[in-house]
Amino acid sequence: MLRVYLILIIGVSIVSSSSVLIRWTGDVPFTVISFYRVFISFCLLLIYQAANPKLKISALRSWHWHYILAGFFLAAHFITWIASLQMTTIANSIFLESMHPLFGVMVSIFFLKEYPHRRTIPIFIIALLGIFIIVSADFNQPGTKLIGDFLAIISALCFAFYIMIARKHKDEQNFIRYLTYIYGSASFFCAAYILMIGDLFWGYSTQSWLLMILLAIGPNLLGHSTLNWASRHMEIFKVNLVMLLEPVLATLSGIIFIAEYPHSNFYIGAGLILLSLWFLMYRER
To answer: Dihedral, CA atoms, 33, 34, 40, 43, nearest 10 degrees?
Structure first.
């Protein structure tokens, strides 16, 4: 189990770089960033499978309608979170988006019948208290963009459902094939939304294209795929709890790379989140 936690933490660390990369893309619409993030990953997986005949897709034999639903929730998660990130600060957006542990517990109870152990409840309380301390400093400040905050919360709910579906299909033998279905489905929903609102698929700078490719290879293909894999090996409320490391790392990246400094409450809340992670790892060991 510690091996799963180690791989999950590496994946979360990679995912945490996405907020800074998105900021660097400039004026590229959030819908376009969301689309190419999953579409490029989808294409790379197709190429990988073409080069490995043993992984060849057998659509009629292994396809499940849940894959379309998972793609929808993944697309909705990216669209709402990236939109939120462009409307408010990295710290505010990503910590509100990090409410998914709470949603993850509710989803686990109602849909998977996976109940957190009573000894895990104090760990969740510590982690959620850390989130509250960080976010509360910005709620009543002038200039806080409530629409961005609301979108971040919607993003958290969508992510909880996305991870739940991954957990339901933990017995899927071909993980690469599963990811191909998910990213392909998410690409379709993102493209449909772009066509509906009239954004352009092209016409962006070389730097923006390079950053979107980097987003697809790093935070998405390596990072999010690792989260998906971890959900097949442990309960999703534990995956969600470990993912609370992401906002801490993302906020620190914002400080280092774009000089976006959080409120002093961040350091107290981040300490509580890291403490909750240590408790969880220690209990599992």
So the answer is: -150
